[in-house]
Amino acid sequence: MRSGSHHDDIYKIGLTRRTTEERADELSRVSGVPTGFEVLAKWEVGNCSEVEKELHDHLKHLRVNKRREFFRGNLQEIFKAIDEVVTYS
Q1: For residue 34, which of 7, 10, 23, 59 sits 20 to 30 Å off, Cα-Cα?
Q2: φ and ψ at 54, to 5 degrees?
Q3: Tell me: the pLDDT tens digits for 45-87?
Q4: Where in the chain does DSSP place strands (E)?
């Protein structure tokens, strides 16, 4: 996901057990976010907590804040990393 209020190269990468649209809606309602979040892509996996942990570890060099799920980087490279982690998990 990304918000138009963020820099073009900042993305939120995390899991949800709801639909991605519901999660984007939830994030968009926060008062500190001037524009809503849009879903750029989604992957369905079996053990989402494990895959998320592995992916966040794989992308830790791109993490904007160690306490948040925002990453700064090239979207194609991020998608490639996600595909690799999902494929081998």
Answers
A1: 59
A2: -65, -40
A3: 989 999 999 999 999 999 999 999 999 999 999 999 999 999 9
A4: 2-3, 10-12, 37-38, 70-72
User: In angstroms, rounded to a whole number, what is the distance separating the alpha carbons of residues 87 and 85?
Assistant: 6
Contacts with 17 (C-beta within 8 Å, 6 or more apart), sequence order: 48
Please give the angle made by the CA atoms of 49, 55 and 56, to the nearest 5 degrees.
90
In the predicted model, is pLDDT for residue 32 greater than 90?
Answer: no
Predicted TM-score of the model (pTM): 0.91
**Nearest C-alpha neighbor of 54 from the set 19, 16, 22, 14:** 14
**What does the block give as tokens for 65?**
């804040």
Q: How far is CA 22 from the centre of its chain?
A: 14
